[in-house]
Amino acid sequence: MTGRHDESPPEHGGGLSHDLPVLARRRMIRLMAGASLLPLVGCTSQETTSAPPSSSASSAGCAEIPEETAGPFPGDGSNGVNVLKESGVVRSDITRSFGDSAGGTAEGVPLTITLTVVDAASGCGTPKQGAAVYVWHCDRDGAYSLYSEGVTEENYLRGVQETDEKGRVTFTSIFPGCYPGRWPHVHFEVYGSLADATAATSITNTSQLAFPEDVCDTVYATDGYGDSVRNLSSLSLEDDGIFSDGHDRQLAAMTGSTADGYTAALTVPV
C-alpha cells in the first residue's frame, strides 16, 4: 500500500502546516488491536529509560502498524523527487547528505532510531528478516531536505536499511525539531525487500513514530531548538491530526540523555 501525500507544503516564516487526519481505516485497526505493544514512557529531565517492547503478543492482540500519511515530503518518487534510486541511500548514518547533494550535515541532539519489523499474522513473534525500511524526518529547524527552502540541495535525514535476522534496522540521526501544527515525529515506509525499496516500488506499510512529550521538552531546552519550544507549547499528542485517535502503538520507547544522545525504539508489525 502506498502512502498518502496529503500534508500541506512548507510555509516558511509560518512553518509547516498540519498533516491531514488519516482515513477511517486506521480507527478500525486500532479498535481491533488489543494491548499496546509499547508502554508509555516515563522519563526524567535529563535521562530516560523505558522497558523494551513486548514480543509476546498473541495473534488476537497484534495488529499491523497504523497506516499514516507519508506527507508531501517523502522523496520516494511519488511526488517528483526520488532519493531511493540514488546510490548511497542504503546507509545507517543519515545525518549527512550524500551523492550529488550539497554535502551538508544536520545538527542537533544525537538520536538512534531502532525499528523492529515483525509479522503481525504470527502474533508479532516472528521477525521479518530481509524486509527494508526507509525513514525520513525534518531537521532541527523543522525543514525537510529536498523540499524546504534553504535545504532543497540537501538529502540528509533520509536513508534505507535492510532488516537483520531480528527484524531490526538502526539509523544514526538527530532529534527532529517541532514545526507548527504537527507533533514531533519520524516518517517511515516498509518494503518487502531491499530491492523493492531501492526501486521505489511495492510499499507495504507507511506510518509514523511519535516522541514522548517529556523527552521533547528536555531536548528542546538545548541550544538550537528555540523555535521548537514555542511550537510544541501549542500542541499535544491528543490533538495532533495524526496521533489524536491513539498513539500507543506509535510512541517510541526512549533511553538516553541530551549529553549522550537518545535511542528511540519501536516495534513495527506488518
Overall description:
The chain is of the alpha+beta class and 270 residues long. It is 11% helix and 24% strand. The protein contains 4 helices and 12 strands. The strands form 3 sheets. Strands 3, 4, 5, 8, 11 and 12 form a 6-stranded mixed beta sheet that branches. A 4-stranded antiparallel beta sheet has the order 7-6-9-10. A two-stranded antiparallel sheet has the order 1-2. Strand 4 and strand 5 form a beta hairpin. The longest helix has 9 residues. The chain is globular. The N terminus is likely disordered.
Radius of gyration: 17 Å
How much helix is in the residues? 10-25%
Mean pLDDT: 84
Number of helices: 4
SS strand fraction: 15-25%
Shape: globular
- What composes the largest sheet? 6 strands, mixed
User: How many E-type strands?
Assistant: 12
Terminal CA distance reads: 11 Å
Task: Please identify the structural class as seen in this structure.
Answer: alpha+beta
| Poorly predicted residue ranges | 1-60
H and E order: EEHEEEEEEEHEHHEE
Key structural traits:
four-stranded antiparallel beta sheet, 270 residues, 11% helix, alpha+beta, six-stranded mixed beta sheet, disordered N terminus, 4 helices, single chain
